[in-house]
Design goal:
The structure is a homodimer. With about 140 residues, the first copy, chain A, is α+β, with helices and mostly antiparallel strands. Chain A is about 20% helix and about 50% strand. The interface of A and B includes residues 5, 33, 66 and 138 of A. Chains A, B: This is Pyridoxamine 5'-phosphate oxidase.
Chain lengths: ~140, ~140
């Protein structure tokens, strides 16, 4: 275990942490402007699944843009952050939707959400932090 | 207190929650591609202050792009998320840098960080969530 304050995680470790996450934030560029949305997810097998009630808007947003998903966890002493990039696509194929319906995707907010979106991840990076005070404060 | 699962917060409440935050995620569009970075911040008086060791890269990224900052907190029953938008700019004016040096910006990772960035927020939104199971799981 490295003592460096910031440790770059291997792809394997990054996937392990991503796959255990149920919540994170999605960032997209809409007409060149950044947008960020907190959401529940199910991550496995190289993809990140989520669903949303905001069907029309999200469908439009996802049509042409790459997406970035970030999830992290922190205590007072340590933390990690995973960033996964890929293309987000709305599921329309009945077999894919059926597969999504069987997933353990857990949505904390009990609204009716019918549009499934899957991000096919092609780039994942992870960092682990050991926290300390800023040098100005030592 | 509303019983709705998702409550839109007032601007006043959103600022109060943002101002208490010390950590969040910054999203930017770089050549039309989304990027997201976890970071420590100091939020007050309509702005979000942070600093970074990644001077050259970040300076380039910030030159022409709007930034979105998100911070959130969750328990098993409730959560909130604040999204603040604005233009990020690297501080170069000595008076502004001196002001930043006096701020209680707290950086968990003890690296030397000399570039201060300030986001002048012009749009803030907040949501509070009451968690429940997805309807499929009820």
């Amino acid at each position: 275990m490295s003592n460096a304050p910031v440790e770059v995680l291997s792809e394997e470790k990054s996937w392990k942490l991503l796959n255990g996450s149920v919540f994170g934030r999605l960032a997209m560029c809409i007409d060149g402007q950044p947008e960020i949305f907190p959401l529940n997810v199910f991550a496995n097998d190289g993809t990140i699944l989520f669903h949303t009630a905001d069907g029309t808007k999200l469908r439009e947003l996802l049509a042409n843009d790459r997406a970035v998903f970030e999830t992290d966890a922190f205590t007072s002493k340590h933390g990690w952050s995973i960033v996964a990039k890929g293309r987000a696509r709305v599921l329309s194929d009945p077999a894919e939707i059926a597969d999504a319906e069987r997933s353990p995707l857990h949505t904390w907010v009990p609204t009716v959400k019918t549009t499934y979106v899957r991000i096919d991840v092609d780039e994942i990076t992870g960092r682990r932090f050991a926290f300390g005070l800023d040098s100005r404060e030592e």
